[in-house]
Design goal:
Helicase, Ruva Protein, domain 3; Rossmann fold; five-stranded parallel beta sheet; alpha/beta
Amino acid sequence: MPILAASSGEAQNVDNPTELAGRILVVDDDHIVLNTLVRMLELAGHTVIATDSMVAALQELERSPVDVVVVDLRLRDGDGLSVLRAVRQRWPDVPVIVISGYGTIESAVQAMKIGAFDYVPKPFRAERLEHVLQEAIQQRARERAARTLARRPDNACNPCNVVGETYQMQRVFDLVEAVADSTATLLIHGETGTGKSLIARVVHQLSQRRDRPFVEVSCGAIPETLLASELFGHTRGAFTGAVRDKDGKFRAAEGGTILLDEIACASPGLQMKLLRVLQEKQFEPLGSNRTLTADVRVILATNVALQEEVKAGRFREDLYYRVNVVNIELPPLRERLSDIPLLAEHFFRLYAQRSTKPLCGFTEEALECMQRYNWPGNIRELANSVERAVVLTRHEAIRPEDLPPQIAGAGNGRGAAFVAARPRSKSTLKEALADPERQILVDALEANGWNRSRTAASLSINRTTLYKKMKRFRIRPPAGEMVGN
C-alpha cells in the first residue's frame, strides 16, 4: 500500500521561516515505507532516525531525545500502540503520531485515548504529515518555553543562564530537568572546564532541596589524609592537630546537595566510606563511634573515565555501579562550535559591564578565530580569553589581536581569507558566517565528486545535516554532475 497520495508540492514549504525542523524518530517494519518516509522528512529539513521494530525504537529513545515519534500501527515485534504506551509513560512530553494503512475507527479512537498526538491513515500527502509534525513540534516548543518561564527568574544558576543551543546541550538540559527532583545519585562526566560544577548547581536549584545548602568539595584539592575528615568530620583528638570537634561537609549539606568533584582522586578507604553513605545514608566522624544519618543528595563529577579506573584497579567496582545511576556527559567545547559565539557574547556582556570602555562586541575575524581554535581548556579557557580581550582591547570591538596568541593564530589561512573577502554589511552572526560555510561545503562536495556520504564523512557531520545545509544554501551540482549517495 502506498503511503503517499499524489502530490505536486512535496516539501515546497521547507523554506517557510515559520516552520520548525525537528528530530524525528520513525518506526515502521516495511523498509520501502520507512525509506520513503525518511527521504520525505529529510527533504522537509528534519533530522530523521529510522527504526524497524519496537525494541529498536525504545533503544533509540534511551540513547538520545527526539522531538516527535512517528510509528506505524503494525510492527513485527509488537504494535504502534505498545510504543505509544511506553513513550507516554517514560517520555510523556514527546508527541507520538500513529500512522496505519490498516486502521479502523476503533484503533484511531484507542490511540487517541492512550495519548497519541494524532492518527494519520495511509495513504496521505506529504503536506498532511508535515502539517501534523509542525503542530507537534510547535506544541513541544511551547511546553518547553512554559517550563522555562516557570523557573525562578532571579536564580543565578537558572538553566536559562547555561548557554547552549547544540543538540548535545539540549540533551543535557533534558536530563537535568528529568533528574532534578529525584534522589538518585548523579554522575557528571566531562573534560576540565566544561561546566560540571555549574550543571550540578542547576540540578540543585531545580530540585525541592533548592532552599537547603549546596556544598561543593574538590577531592583533588584536599590532601588524602584530610579528605575523610573534611567530608565526615572528626572528634577532638582523632588525629594530631584535631584540637576540637568539627562537623564535616556532609553535615553542612544536611537536607541539601553535596558535589564531590574529582571523585576519582578518592582513596580506597574513602571510597568504602562513600559507598556506605550512598547505600545506608550513614557515617561516623573520625575518632567517634556515634553513627550519624545523612539526608543529602550526592552528585559526583569527574574528568576521567571511571570505567577505565575500575579496570585499572584504582576505583571500586561496587562504588562505580552505585554512583553510575544517572550519567550526564558534558561535551567538550570543540564539539559545540555553533555555541562558541553564543558563549563568547555571554562572557563579553558579563565582563563589559565591569569595564568603563565603550565596547560593542567582536569583529567577524575574532569570532572566526575562536571557532577555529580547539579550546583544550573548554569553557573556562573561553571565559578567561574573553576577559583578557576586554581588558586589553583599545577598540570598540574585540579584534583577533586582542585574543591570546594561540587563538588569534587559529584564524590564519583560508577561513580568514573568506572573512576578509566578505562584505562588512552582514547584520547578524548567522549571516556573517553563511558565506564561508557555504564555500566550505561546495569545496568539500567538489573534492568528493558530489558524493554526499563521502562529503559528510570528510566534514565529520551526518548526511542529514549535509542535506539540510545544501537545502539552506541552495547548493546544487553543476550541469552534468550527478549527486551521489
